[in-house]
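Q: Please design a sequence for this.
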């Protein structure tokens, strides 16, 4: 049978209960309402400081990058990296003919290569970009050797052209035995031309 608490024990139990109540109140009123949100604010401030330092570093590099860009634009070799011309439709037609001539030149190698379909593509101009994209969609029937020669020429010759999509599959007319014959190839070729400078208003 438990004995009743004496005066000192009752006082100690009351103080312990009071301490628990105060701790609970501190957690609810201070930690939950102030300390927790303040900790989140401190973390956000630290993230903003890191972002500010990162952006400041990029801004510090801008004069050097602008100088390098200006030098690249003045370099005579840079002009040969772009497609000649200013009218997007005409440049797309020229690129399409350039690709047709290149495929014809490579068409005598190996199993040969022939252009079966071509279509120019002129994406919408992005005003934020210094150059405009010109694309040509090509469908070929091509042997492995002329196809490799064509891709090599596109990679290492000017103007710079890039392959956005390359799809290769065995042709339906390929022999069932022996070599692969001609492959059915789809190419999406991309080049760039400099955007025309905006026309100045007459005084």
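A: Design:
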């Amino acid at each position: 049978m438990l004995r009743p608490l004496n005066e000192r024990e009752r006082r100690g139990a009351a103080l312990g209960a009071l301490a628990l109540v105060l701790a609970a109140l501190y957690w609810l009123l201070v930690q939950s309402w102030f300390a927790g949100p303040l900790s989140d604010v401190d973390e956000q401030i630290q993230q903003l400081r890191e972002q500010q330092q990162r952006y400041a570093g990029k801004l510090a590099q801008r004069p050097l990058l602008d100088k390098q860009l200006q030098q690249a634009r003045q370099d005579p070799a840079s002009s040969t990296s772009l497609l000649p011309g200013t009218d997007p439709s005409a440049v797309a037609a020229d690129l399409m003919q350039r690709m047709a001539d290149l495929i014809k030149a490579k068409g005598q190698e190996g199993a040969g290569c022939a252009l079966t379909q071509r279509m120019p593509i002129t994406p919408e101009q992005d005003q934020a970009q210094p150059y405009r994209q010109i694309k040509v969609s090509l469908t070929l029937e091509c042997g492995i050797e002329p196809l490799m020669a064509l891709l090599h020429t596109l990679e290492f010759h000017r103007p710079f052209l890039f392959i956005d999509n390359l799809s290769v599959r065995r042709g339906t007319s390929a022999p069932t035995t022996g070599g692969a014959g001609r492959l059915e190839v789809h190419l999406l070729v991309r080049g760039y031309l400099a955007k025309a400078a905006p026309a100045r208003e007459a005084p």
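Q: Thanks. Anything notable?
A: The first helix runs from residue 7 to 74. Strands lie at 113-121, 131-142, 162-170, 183-194.
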